[in-house]
Design brief:
19 helices; alpha+beta; globular; about 50% helix; 4-stranded antiparallel β-sheet; single chain
């Protein structure tokens, strides 16, 4: 918010008419209470309209009531006044969230999401737009996840700086089922320090404790915060900001992205000491548990952070599990029994590769990209040969691309498998790197080099 003023006291409190002419203040101190009239700000037409546009743009699945984003506007036209009244009186009650499980990256387990109804998403978004500017200004400079103007790339660059300064040991903290174990009372106590509007606090508590509908059964929740709603990232940052402040107080070098926290120290002995003390702090003050299997302290090159791996001298390279996940996506796209044209396959590949390149543009290891480029072209050569299927179509295709008949026919008649055939010299002469470039296939090494310029 741009225009802020101190919280009024006693006779200085503004009446509701004057309130409409002012913006709610941005607190200057982390422990200074916010105004008691926050629901009026949340219910301002401009704020609600912004919230609707964001929910509409984000799309997303329907919640337990089956209402889609496209149906929201019609619902608002009918129920706008009653919705605003329930918010202003603090009587608004969110519906249960729809429990949905999605596979974790790499296929290791599932992640539980909780999808609110579109109306609840609208309300959460309206609340977020008022709370975020106020809370975010007090968050740690070492926190990067789900904050406006901050990104994973910034966290990685800061981590690289720490390593280059000689902090070559990382204490990698992974919280066990963080979103499932958020303590409601602790989070509400943090909120009540900053928010004095009891109506808003009641509604926030109801969002936290809303049941989860799974397979037709509504499960009550006394802890946890479902991933999937607009407020969840801000609430997680608010809770974990206490960890950030503790690490800052101790003078540690660290980067936190959501519930992924890396602390950089100079020795393994220091790493062991920090791991133990941080674990005790999290368990005692935030009732959170460190995942012993995924957490640890080690030289930076032995750990991974946000899909990258840091080498001892501070060089950023792509983590092996990130490469493996890309390979798995490419295998699905280039599956040889799909029955779609090579041009369609390349289009789908490019959509996947563009996003991957944008995220991994910080890599400083070109040979990784070169190997991937070679492997992708290999998969496509194999796909194209399999499309031709029989001897004559294969030979004709190769000859159309300049392969002599005396080389094309023996290869077409060969009983070797498609993968081995795709590695042969005639196939490489037919489907050259230039040929793939002309087909529009993204070259990872060249693309990342261009992004860095």
């Amino acid at each position: 918010m741009d225009n802020h003023h101190q919280r009024p006291n006693g006779n200085q409190r503004m009446n509701s008419a004057k309130l409409e002419e002012h913006q709610i203040l941005k607190v200057s101190k982390a422990d200074e209470p916010l105004t008691e009239q926050m629901m009026e700000k949340i219910c301002e037409p401009l704020n609600l309209n912004r919230a609707y546009k964001r929910v509409k743009a984000n799309k997303g699945a329907a919640g337990v009531d089956g209402m889609t984003v496209d149906e929201l506007l019609e619902w608002i036209a009918i129920h706008k006044e009653s919705l605003i009244e329930s918010l202003l009186t603090g009587s608004y009650r969110p519906q249960s969230v729809l429990g949905v499980e999605i596979p974790k990256p790499g296929g290791k387990g599932v992640r539980q999401l909780g999808i609110p109804t579109v109306v609840d998403r609208l309300v959460q978004q309206a609340i977020l737009q008022v709370l975020e500017p106020m809370f975010d200004s007090s968050f740690s400079d070492s926190s990067y996840g789900f904050r406006p103007g901050r990104s994973a790339h910034q966290a990685l660059k800061r981590a690289r700086e720490y390593v280059q300064e000689g902090y070559g040991i990382v204490v990698d903290i992974d919280l066990e089922k963080f979103f499932d174990r958020v303590n409601h009372d602790i989070l509400m106590s943090r909120l009540s320090k900053r928010i004095k509007d009891k109506r808003l606090l009641r509604i926030l508590r109801r969002f936290l404790s809303a049941g989860m509908m799974k397979q037709g059964v509504c499960i009550s929740r006394r802890e946890g915060m479902p991933q999937g709603g607009p407020l969840s990232p801000l609430m997680s940052n608010l809770l974990l900001d206490e960890l950030d402040k503790e690490l800052e107080h101790r003078g540690h070098k660290f980067c936190r992205y959501a519930d992924d926290c890396n602390i950089y120290v100079r020795s393994l002995c220091a790493g062991e000491r920090v791991m133990g003390s941080v674990k005790r702090f999290l368990e005692k003050h935030l009732r959170l548990k460190v995942n012993e299997t995924k957490s640890g302290h080690a030289p930076v090159e032995e750990r991974q952070f946000l899909g990258y791996r840091l080498l001892g001298e501070g060089k950023l390279v792509i983590a092996e599990h990130s490469v493996d996940r890309l390979r798995e996506k490419i295998r699905r796209i280039t599956k040889r029994n799909r029955g779609v044209s090579l041009e369609t396959v390349i289009t789908e590949l490019n959509e996947c590769l563009r996003g991957w390149v944008n995220y991994f543009q910080l890599t400083q290891w070109p040979s990784q990209l070169r190997v991937l480029d070679t492997w992708i072209r290999h998969k496509l050569r194999c796909y194209r040969l399999k499309q031709r299927k029989h001897t004559w179509p294969i030979a004709k295709f190769l000859m159309s691309l300049g392969v002599p008949a005396q080389s094309a026919w023996p290869l077409a008649k060969s009983g070797k498998g498609w993968w081995r055939l795709s590695m042969s010299v005639p196939v490489h002469h037919a489907m050259t790197n230039t040929w793939f470039n002309e087909k529009g296939l993204i070259n990872l090494e060249q693309k990342i080099a261009l992004v860095k310029v």
